[in-house]
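Input set for joint prediction.
Command: fold jointly, output tokens.
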Amino acid sequence: MITQPQATTIPDPDEERRRIQTERLLAYRDDGPLVTALKGRLGRGLPPVPTTLVALLVIVALAVTGKLEDGPILVVPALVLIVLVLPTRARDHLGRFDWLTPPLLRATEFLTIILLGLATGTPKWLLFVLIYVIGYHTYDTVYRTRQSIWPPAWLFQAGLGWELRLLILGVGAATGLLTPVAAVLTAYLLVLFSVESILSWVRLDKASAQAQADQDLEQSPEDAAEQVTGDADPA
Amino acid sequence: MTRVVLLGSPPGQIASPPSGGRPVLPADITLASLPGAPSVYGRLLGQLVSLDPHPTTIARPDDAAAYRKHPGRVVESPDVAGDLRALADAVEGAAENVLILPADALVHDELIYQITKAKRAAIALIVREERGEDAPEEPPIEEAMPEIGAKLLEGLPQRTRAGRGRVISVGTAHHAVTRPNVALLGPIHLHQRHAAVLADAARELADMAHLFGPEDDVTELLVLGLVRRGVSVGVRGRRDLFYRRVGSQAEADQAAAEMAGYNEDRARLDNAVKGADGFFTTFFVSTYSRFIARWAARRGLTPNQVTLISIALGLLAAGAFATGTRWGAVSGGVLIYFAFVFDCVDGQVARYARKFGVLGAWLDATFDRFKEYAVFVGLAVGATVSGKFGDGEGVWTLALVALALQSVKHLVDFSFGAANRRRAPVPLPTLALSVADDRPLREALEQRKASRASGVRGLLKLWSRAGKFRLVYWARKMIVFPIGERFAAIAITAALFDPRVTFLTLIIWGGVAATYTLTGRLLRSLA
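tokens >
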């Protein structure tokens, strides 16, 4: 699902920029094997932002009304999210508000993890590490692609994507086994992401990747704009 | 790498006879006060060697021999038209960025470096007309007529109009400009994607060279060509650095003496501190962090080693918070402050020592997050072991929410940034090179401005203009809860109160920040 952006012929620079930035936006979604497998089979798909928002609101409503206590109901948030958001991958994500999709999706994923943890009394420190590890993967994707170094496609599959992670946690919570399930999942992801990061940096030909090295990876879009326009002398 | 083109024949004065007293060649002017006493041209080649070991110099046939004594390629050209064509040949098909400099330039290394590293795709060095405080108010620009300016700025024709950030219109002996306010100093840096436009415009200008005067410098004509072709040419002044063209030994001696009065190292250090930082970083860190950066760079510390110091301090802070004692909290607050200081220092060392690496940038960013979230863990552990919060699960839940909120907030930044970058810029108006009067260009610019100032865009413009008031500017910077403010909030609330207050502060301030930035970005997406 992540294809290394490669220029075959010399394309229009605007077109090329749009393609690469959209590619990044899609990578930030962190879709896993299930989404990838079903991507081509769901027709036109659903609009990403409204659908993800609806899923988020449904999960919030379940929590607020106290439905999320124990038993099979705990797998419902994951199912709601998967049923609604899985078909959105087919869309091109070129809409003016489509940048909201990755943060909305990640917010819903984190919220679901916290709600499941609260419902089952799972140790919070464990969930903290789990959310940090998932967050690390997202930050890593951002910080690498901002330097035009793309994480390999298999990493997103092996990372299970938001959909399989939530499904595993949801089933674990529904069967009363969230603590061991979360512990195994956390350990697996921790090893996977950290080992892959280290190996990829060891293997990278750093000399060829020096070109844009002086950029600030953490800068917000507004600060970046200010730095460019503020480059001028005051009038 | 960069493709460097040096222009070996300086322009004359306004209305000077074409064969008037020829200036001394920069290859024949000695800079006796500098080590090795190089010639002006030889020094410049030495400064450019890391950019382009074989620069192209365009020179009159009579002068070519003097330039040929130095390394690099010399192209002979009989006149300005020939210069333009030779330049077009030199930059055409460039697969690297292009730097164009007068061969008689006496300039600081750091200024060359800053121009080549500017984030603009095209940038020209300028000097602005200084208007005294008591100068009479000028009538509105709408009433001004285009003129062929006769005023000089440092001996260069003041014939260009520049706005705050870019060149609006360039004048020559043929092209009139409405209210010119700057002179172009000569150096131009261009991204490779504009090289073809430059070559094409230069050839067209060569065909109309008979219209130009002796004072029209090739660099000026090039900027004219770029601007008229709709390229956004950014402007910058020399600021705290030195640049001057020298045409005789006496001028060179005077300029060298003046240049010696500048502190180039200090300018380089100041430039290593990145702009556009938040309030806390600007006033409580950046005021002195550059001196630590210089100290570290001179001791040979690499940016990655400084990052390691920062990580160690961050982990120590987390450990101190984890003790759950008052003293632990206070020392944790101090440690996390210095972890943040060294986090700023690593980037400054990289920029000051010009040691950049993809790995360094990644480590810096990744471990910033690690430090911040490790401190969350320290605080939550401290709350648990102190026993003041029952089993501590309540504080851990707050820590979880703070972590999730901050991660999602960052992802909003990143996603919006990616989506924002794919929007094509609104093109600038173009104007045929042969048109002498720049009013059509001005009118097209006015229309462009008006079409972009309606509805939501007008509102956003108003809001961005409000940034000229210092209070609004800094309040806006603080409300988005940047990293400096976050670290300061953690340090202060943890030292004075308890972890629960810290997490609540992070969640509430972070929530306000998220609401504020989301509103702005939704509006900008709508515009």
